[in-house]
């Protein structure tokens, strides 16, 4: 599990009051919708004034609680903020969130990410900063492999490249800084330049002499110190974005193509060049009820030259927002090159749009040319599927709380709670 389900309990007392709440909103298309701010006003017998609050700062707290045998009991808290920095007709909604988490076994991290849009979207900043001590379950490089420690049966016609990989608990301290600035060129086209500073240290301190771990063998093969390394890079991006809304699009397309180059002159442990691709497409299936949406997402990273430190390999949840691969843990699959794809159907459940639902299916594939039997990209796919609920937080900003349950291969499953859609 990435997140706990405690937030469900906080919502229970709100749902009943939502149906009886009075709607004083006059804006066309939204007067029949109810969000959590309407619910709050109903509970305290106040009138809603969301026709003006669209320009005000909105704040949201999301607590989480999880248990993992390796990390112990983990308690987290996310503070999210939403605001328009320009006129809503010409400026996308800016958002930021800070997540703090700590476990009983001494693991902790702080993560801050944001999407900031200046008036008329002439400039935007996309960032993700993180510092913490992390424990990850490490299964090695490449898809098409499984572990003897995982539950579930494989299909009888499955071909596996070699023996099941060993599984290790990979503990490390990391400092990550990712920031990309985009400038509008014309219409819906943008160009951007990004700075990435990633430092990893204290890796495998408890098993430093274990020469069989995936991190040690990979680092030894590619010339990295196995217990610390740096991956600093610049990225150059071309972006297209004509979505009707950044949080919960009903229609439109988003695309980004970039080159990320790591250089020793920037402090990196090695030189490398990667091609980064992302594509999102949304189709509204109903003119009367546009919340019926079919959405598609692709994210990919391809090594063109050089070498990447082990913990920098692209993989599950490796996108900027860490939302890919629902059904699997962070980094469950990784590769020298990596390709991810997902399709999702979104639909309203209640007539007032307070609660909606989604159903999704995804697949990921990663390469490992240095495996005993080399694994090519697109050779083996790891699928996931699931469903979830959406609770509308603010109808003007289309921000919502996402609660998903995903199921993957080898008996994997998990609950995922976040702010706004996965993509």
Protein model, in words:
Strands 1-2-3-4-5-6-7-8-9-10-11-12-13-14-15-16 form a 16-stranded antiparallel sheet, with no helix packed on it. It is globular and about 65 Å long. It has a single domain (7-419), classed as membrane protein fhac: a member of the omp85/tpsb transporter family (Porin, Beta Barrel). The chain is built from four helices and 16 strands. Helices cover 8% and strands 47% of the residues. The protein has helices at 7-20, 36-43, 50-53, 214-222; strands spanning 58-68, 72-84, 93-103, 108-117, 123-138, 168-186, 189-201, 229-241, 252-262, 272-284, 293-306, 338-348, 355-366, 382-394, 399-408, 413-419. The protein has 423 residues and is mainly beta.
């Amino acid at each position: 599990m990435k997140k706990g389900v405690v937030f469900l309990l906080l919502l229970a007392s709100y749902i009943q009051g939502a149906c009886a709440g009075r709607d004083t909103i006059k804006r066309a298309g939204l007067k029949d919708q109810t969000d959590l701010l309407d619910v709050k006003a109903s509970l305290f017998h106040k009138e809603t004034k969301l026709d003006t609050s669209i320009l005000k700062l909105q704040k949201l707290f999301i607590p989480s609680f999880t248990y993992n045998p390796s990390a112990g009991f983990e308690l987290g808290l996310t503070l999210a903020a939403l605001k328009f920095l320009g006129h809503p007709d010409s400026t996308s909604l800016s958002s930021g969130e800070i997540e703090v988490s700590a476990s009983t076994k001494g693991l902790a991290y702080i993560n801050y990410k944001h999407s900031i849009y200046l008036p008329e979207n002439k400039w935007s900043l996309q960032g993700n900063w993180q510092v913490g001590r992390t424990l990850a379950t490490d299964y090695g490089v490449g898809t098409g492999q499984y572990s003897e420690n995982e539950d579930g049966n494989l299909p009888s016609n499955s071909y596996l490249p070699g023996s099941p990989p060993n599984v290790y608990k990979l503990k490390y301290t990391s400092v990550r800084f990712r920031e990309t600035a985009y400038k509008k060129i014309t219409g819906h086209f943008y160009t951007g330049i990004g700075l990435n500073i990633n430092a990893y240290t204290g890796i495998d301190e408890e098993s430093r002499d274990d020469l069989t771990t995936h991190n040690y063998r990979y680092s030894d093969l590619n010339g990295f110190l196995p217990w610390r390394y740096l991956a600093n890079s610049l990225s150059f991006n071309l972006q297209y974005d004509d979505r009707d809304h950044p949080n919960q699009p009903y229609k439109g397309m988003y695309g980004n193509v970039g080159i990320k180059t790591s250089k020793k002159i920037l402090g990196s442990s090695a030189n490398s060049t990667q091609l980064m691709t992302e594509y999102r497409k949304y189709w509204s299936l109903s003119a009367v009820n546009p919340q019926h949406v079919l959405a598609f997402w692709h994210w990919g990273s391809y090594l063109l030259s050089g070498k990447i430190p082990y913990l920098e390999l692209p993989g599950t949840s490796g996108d900027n927002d860490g939302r890919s691969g629902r059904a699997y843990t962070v980094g469950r699959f990784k590769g020298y090159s990596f390709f991810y794809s997902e399709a999702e159907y979104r639909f309203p459940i209640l007539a007032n749009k307070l609660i909606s639902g989604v159903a999704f299916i995804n697949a990921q594939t990663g390469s490992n040319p240095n495996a005993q039997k080399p694994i090519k990209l697109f050779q083996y796919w790891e699928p996931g599927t699931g469903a979830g609920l959406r609770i509308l937080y603010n109808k003007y900003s289309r921000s919502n709380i996402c609660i998903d349950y995903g199921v993957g291969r080898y008996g994997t499953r998990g609950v995922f709670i976040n702010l706004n859609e996965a993509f």
